[in-house]
Amino acid sequence: MKKHQLSEQLSSDPRLKMVRQVTKLMDEQFAIGRFRFGLDPILGLIPVVGDVGAYVISATLVITMIRHGASGRVAAKMLWNITLDALVGAIPLVGAVFDFAYKANTRNLKLLTEHYTEGKHQGSAKPVVLSIILTMLLILALLIYLSIKALLWMDSKLSPLILK
């Protein structure tokens, strides 16, 4: 589907009006030249409170979309988008840049529009949730492994200094 067609469908579907407005505010309200951004990356500059606030607003949008008929599959994808946005956005410096580039609410609005207008993303959330859980477990295992390696390395470097 062409971007213009998607835009027309977004503007004509009354179920999406409030969601469209908040999405624009969070992801594309302001412009500097051709670069568009919203409140999400600005809020992300406020440690903890900003990230939590942006996540709550995004989660509220997802809940609204679910109440208006989003399937389990599309809801799981939306939750993944906002969670990824919040987690990476919480990392100092990298997160700030990521927040300006990764527009989770806009991605979710596109998912919902595809769901409503094209019948995409139908069905159960089980495959999506299962893949998310497996990915999270792999990341957790990698983090534990890297933490142990870092601690062992630090121990090998600090032990001789402490024993002197």
Characterization of the model:
By secondary structure, the chain is mainly alpha-helical. It folds into two domains: 3-123, no CATH class; 125-164. It is 76% helix and 4% strand. The protein has eight helices and two strands. It has helices at 3-12, 17-27, 39-44, 49-67, 72-89, 94-101, 104-118, 126-163, and strands spanning 30-32, 35-37. A two-stranded antiparallel ribbon has the order 1-2. Helix 4 runs parallel beside helix 7 (104-118). The mean pLDDT is 79.
Helix content: over 70%
Largest pleated sheet:
2 strands, antiparallel
The overall number of domains is: 2
Instruction: Figure out the total of helices.
Output: 8
Structural class: mainly alpha
Organism: Mycovorax composti
Keywords: Membrane, Transmembrane, Transmembrane helix
Protein name: DUF4112 domain-containing protein
InterPro entries: DUF4112
What secondary-structure arrangement, pairings included, does this model have?
Blueprint: H1 3-12, H2 17-27, E1 30-32, E2 35-37, H3 39-44, H4 49-67, H5 72-89, H6 94-101, H7 104-118, H8 126-163
Antiparallel strand pairs: 1-2
Helix pairs in contact: 2-4, 2-7, 4-5, 4-7, 5-6, 5-7, 5-8
InterPro entries: DUF4112
Protein name: DUF4112 domain-containing protein
Organism: Mycovorax composti
